[in-house]
Amino acid sequence: MLRKNPSGDMPVVDESAFIDPTAIICGKVIIEDNVFIGPYAVIRADEVNDAGSMEPIVIKRDTNIQDGVVIHSKAGASVVIGERTSIAHRSIIHGPCHVGDDVFIGFNSVIFQTMVGQGCVVRHNCVVDGLDLPAYFHVPPMTNIGADFDLNTISKVPPEYSAFSESVVSANHTLVKGYRKISNAL
């Protein structure tokens, strides 16, 4: 469902994207081409800053936002999800936040007030709050990263996880085509 926010902003969605009918996309949201938005996802850009304005939530091309993901932003801050990125089931991305290109965010993870560099893999049940992740870092399952976390304890992304991330993106491209075909046939 696409709907306006209280400021009157309506989402802008590329016609090649697929948004599941149960998903809610609200307000100043920009969804680029070939994006998959799964069932029960909520992407909501509706809060304003002290000056009464807000930055958009941008979902860049070839990205997949899976079932039950929530993307929101505090006080109108920017949220950008990069190209070919996968945000897995029930994760929360809360702005201010920037997630780079070719990133995988695992199931039930929370990303807040941070920049996640290109090619990072954040595994399931992780929290990244207030500390930027350089490119190609691998965050092991159930890791909590805060402002005082020592990034030297984290390794680079192993090749098998990069391959897995690419396979998830590929699978979701197939889903976009399949679901668009079904919805056009109805």
Automatic annotation (TrEMBL):
Classify the source by domain of life: Bacteria
Q: Which positions carry the signal peptide feature in this UniProt record?
A: none
Entry-linked Pfam families: Hexapep (PF00132)
Q: Which spans are transmembrane here?
A: none
| Listed name of the protein | Carbonate dehydratase
Query: What is the protein's species of origin?
Result: Veronia pacifica
